[in-house]
Here is the input.
Amino acid sequence: MGYMRELAIKTYWYLCGVVLIQFFVLFYRQVGLLPVWTLIEYMQLVSFIPLYNFRMIPYLYDAFKPFLVSHLVLTNETFVLQEMQNDYFNTNYDYYWLSIAKLGQSLFLITCLFFFVVFTNIVVFGLYLCAPKGTKFEVWISSLLSQYKFNVYLRLYMLCYFDLTFFSTMKIVEGNDETKIRKVATMISYVLFTLSIVVPVFLMSVICKRFEVMKIKQAKASFNTVVLKIDK
Here is the structure.
């Protein structure tokens, strides 16, 4: 058990390194980031296998835990919602050591990631304004900036969609609103659950409405992330 726990901790860092290295290599080579997005999506699915309604051999839980990095569950320690550190939705979460506090911390990190994306968008926009016109750098930064118009935010939402929907649903089903923090968490859960229904319908409506425009390569490029997801 001790060996598997130590291996799980090391595998956390290994998987983080694999994702980051693959992201930067694909970004540098400009061949598309589909492989890294696909990897993260499969990691997200695999990481929640222990939450199904069956009991696994104890050390197998440690074998699955490293895949939780795809949900931004990066450590066994929690720094937010510490009063919920020993609270679990059900016994399967207890076996998996996946407390409500860890899920709340994951949502907090997702929020931080959103603001980081907004910050990088501002930086790229500033570089575009400062870039000498007609240079290769100006063309490259312009192409990068165009991805922020839709694709970057759409991809971020797609990667977070499973977490936001799953976590909000579980909190609503749990129904424990004894403290103010729990009441706030429930309110946020209702908002997230509503958005998980409205946003996909809105995106599909946009795609259908702009079908003729999407035949133009430049126009389709701004939506290729969501179009690829619909195709899948």
Notes: The radius of gyration is 20 Å. The chain has a mean pLDDT of 76.
